[in-house]
Design goal:
288 residues, alpha/beta, Helicase, Ruva Protein, domain 3, Rossmann fold, 2 domains, five-stranded parallel beta sheet, 13 helices, 5 strands
């Protein structure tokens, strides 16, 4: 039995409540997450050419996307690109792959890739379906790649939006799109939202929610522990998960029934929570 499973049993939990994998079953609807999700839905329903959602690393963007894709209507054809890596010239390969499309081997160039994609859009439109391309971790896209994507939205004409684009990424994606060179991309963004960190009370509700979702009471962390966790994570969900997971493990090894401030302090002093060092480094950069 793994240490995670053993500490879960110690606290009467069915499973570890603070794993790092995006899991819609543990989705916590903070006010910020509700607004971000609403923007994604509004972008789809209003047929926005481009919808943009940005947020800090670990703020829960990918979990929101999983929830969105689970609720997509049947009249939508959805393609997902995660962690794009490559030059602008590689983009159409990724786009076609997202929809399971292939280019004849005797015509492997970008012109034919583009034509295959347009033919797919026309076919879906004729079948009464809209096509949505979602790009997660879109901060990896270069300026040229973003402009290439903007060109794909040119297939929309008249009153019908055949193709929609959803871009999700870190804060630098928003900054990049605001550059003068990408003015035309920015003009096509009809819905956007930046997902920030959780405030202290929201984070405490988040921790309780995940504990209860895993079969706990939600009171496994004392108030003093909660204060320390928010102070050392800035309310960023991924970092909160890491510190809470380690704190539960420490409490289990000490045979404690709850996580106290002293438990969290022990984790921090042992420097096993690497996120605190990353957060401290980022804060120093901002001050410089």
């Amino acid at each position: 039995m793994s240490s995670g499973a053993m500490y879960a049993a110690h606290f009467g939990l069915k499973q570890r409540p603070f794993t790092l994998l995006p899991d819609p079953d543990f989705l916590f609807w903070s006010p910020e997450h509700r607004r971000a999700y609403s923007v994604l839905e509004i972008g789809i329903l209003s047929r926005a050419p481009i919808t943009l959602v940005t947020g800090e690393i670990g703020s829960g963007k990918t979990t929101l996307l999983r929830q969105l894709m689970n609720r997509m209507e049947e009249d939508l054809s959805v393609g997902l690109i995660s962690n794009f890596a490559g030059a602008r010239e590689d983009l159409m390969r990724w786009v076609l792959n997202a929809f399971g499309l292939q280019v004849p081997e005797d015509h492997p160039d970008d012109v034919h890739r583009y034509q295959v994609f347009v033919d797919f859009l026309v076919q879906e439109y004729a079948s009464g379906r809209r096509v949505i391309l979602i790009i997660d971790e879109a901060q990896n896209l270069s300026v040229d790649a973003l402009e290439e994507l903007r060109m794909l939205t040119n297939v929309n004409s008249g009153q019908d939006e055949v193709f929609q684009l959803i871009l999700v990424g870190q804060a630098e994606l928003r900054d990049r799109i605001l550059r003068p060179k990408l003015k035309q991309v920015a003009q096509r963004i009809a819905a956007s939202f930046h997902l920030g960190p959780m405030r202290s009370e929201e984070m405490q509700d988040y921790v309780r929610h995940r504990l209860q979702s895993a079969g706990g009471s939600g009171d496994e962390f004392l108030d003093g522990a909660m204060v320390l966790i928010h102070k050392n994570t800035d309310g960023i969900p991924r970092l909160v998960n890491q510190l809470c997971d380690l704190s539960l493990m420490y409490a289990w090894t000490d045979d404690e029934e709850v996580v106290s401030a002293e438990t969290v302090e022990a984790v921090l002093q042992d420097k096993v929570f690497f996120g605190a060092q990353l957060l401290g480094g980022a804060q120093k950069e901002q001050q410089a």
